[in-house]
Batch of 3 targets.
Target 1
Amino acid sequence: MANESRPCPCDIGDRFDYEGCGQEVQVEHVKAYVCKPAASTDKAVIVIHDIFGWQLPNTRYMADMLAANGYIAICPDFFVGQEAWKLSNDWASFDDWLKTRNAAKIDKEVDAILKYLREQCGAKKIGVIGFCWGGAAVQHLMLKNPHLKTGVSLYGVIKFFEDRYSLLHPTFFIFGEKDDIIPLAQVTLLEQKLKQNCKVDYEVKVYPGQTHGFVHRKREDINPQDKPYIEEGRKDMINWLNKYL
């Protein structure tokens, strides 16, 4: 039932049949997918994957969309070689699986990626977006990392970072109204706490009728009723990055 809290396990949605326009690179101890825009730029966005990992075609599609909008986009393997979650896995083992993949323990990888973007790609203004597990990671980075300019957290699991709201950088939070992993009560509380504690720009937006993962896990061509919200979420994400990068 919608809006009853349950653990992060989520449906993969529509798996995109998508090859990607970028290339895989090795950045210190991290593998990463990189896609660059046609024109040179000093703006870059780190894309943080969900539980299904850095090779999910849907996430690469989003990285390529950022490149098409003028950003160097990089999607690193934040599980650092550990297996991504598979739909064939037993959900009962999810909590144990998650213990070795902490969304707040990615600082070493982020530092390596920031160095690569600055030194190898000429990036000066760097933001971050993330989905689900990665959305929680965005919130962690917005609370801690001084080198990022802005972040977009897409249906980031709020319970990972309860009681931490003093963001360092402008942050945009995207949620679906019918998300059965993130109850609306949690979203309302997040808004209240940000209002009380946050000194930088932020926005929390709930998209009507939308379920968990709608921006990157739903194909707009086969979900006509959701198409306006999928497109709106993607456009809002790009507009936020354009504003702060």
Target 2
Amino acid sequence: MWLKEDRGVYFSDLSSDDTHRLFNEFVEVWNACRLSNKYYEGISRGPRTSHNWAIKDQNSIPDEEEKFLLDWKKEKTEQKKYWKEQAVLLDELLPKETGRERIFEKRTIRKEMIKARDNSPEMLSEKDILGGGDDIQKRLAQEKARREMQAKGKSVLYNEKFSAYMRKEAAAMDQIRALVDSAGGKIIIPKRNEDA
């Protein structure tokens, strides 16, 4: 305060050497009791810089937007606290399974959901959903025919692969029989050499 009123400078504008020199001057003036009474009664805060910080006084009345934000933040923290307490309470009353039990529990829940979905009555018929009429019947017939052709193609392919496999197996068995016949109808397996 003394720097601003007596010297016309701010503390933040001074170098270290200047602050030390001016402090010594202030102490001399203080000790000589040449300052106004306000300095001796006590000053809570003086200007330290020329910058205007635009800090709001905490006792000032907040505007509508600030009130809304404060209320919203308070409500959110209360909600978080409430749900956290509910989760703790639920965990105490019905503790969750862990490990293998949890895996089995999840699997059971999933199966029940699928079963419930499969067993649920249809609210709308296919005609309501797809529009009905002859056009839809033609499309369904075409789809059915396409699936049948696809199934026939798969069946033919499967049969060809199976017959090729059986021919290969038959050829392998014929070779084995030829080897047995060349050995006089007996298969001789040499004994193991126990020394080796």
Target 3
Amino acid sequence: MSQAVFQFSSSSVSLPMDIIKSPVKSIFGSQLKSWEIEQTQMRYLDSFKRTPTLRLKALRESAGLTQEIIDNPQKSIGTIEKGSDTFKEMRHRFLSFKKDKYLENLKHYQTLAKGQAPKFMVIACADSRVCPSSILGFQPGEAFVVRNVANLVPPHENGPTETNAALEFSVNSLEVENILVVGHSCCGGIHALMSMQDVKNSSGSFIKSWVVVGKDARLRTKAAVSNLDLDQQCRHCEKESINRSLLNLLTYPWIEDRVKRGTLSLHGGYYDFIDCTFEKWTLDCSRHASKVDGEYSVKNREYWS
């Protein structure tokens, strides 16, 4: 049921002065008699009845909803039933999880209730087709996960975001041993980045303002494969942006320090959901690691198919 919203202003209603001057504290105190309360309520009600603006404001929303149901009852009922079916299925999944996993591993979940100690921090895309837990089999308590559009990591100088807030907590508080940035095929965020005509003018769009974080990956992609069509450029950039994010991780002093001490490793991953393959590599930050174009090389590259 919709709620009526009443807005009182000098242009819409004129209330009796004795109502306006009535002290608020008397309504909550013990001095106001019951007949006084009734009289006050009646005067408000009378003002409301005599003011069409207020009546229209109060009835507009509820009348609109009622008319919609009258005009198309099957659509309204179908929408309600569809929503109900969706949550029935969700309820079934939750109860199955409780029965088959939670209660079967009760001791483990009771331990998790006391605290978490994941070994992995995962940065993945918000794309509904790319769920790290489903793809890589992470179980509750194994990975601290943050997901954003195009799985980007902004450099430290860009200031606070939910992504580096999650990084700070996972590295400094949870002391994870691995950070894994997972990109994927057919990424809409990367497509938006590669389709931008001017990365310097990203105002007016939340998406553009965010994906411009990957502008370095875009520049390197344009320099390397500008002769290819847009889809092929996007595929190249999907992987290039992962490496840019890995390098951006090193702009955070507390990440760089742990990497140098060997207590934290940085990994990249690329999930191709067209043929269900996965590439994995690790940023080589050792003292003797060779660098390409002044940047770190990778090691332990694997291809899972």
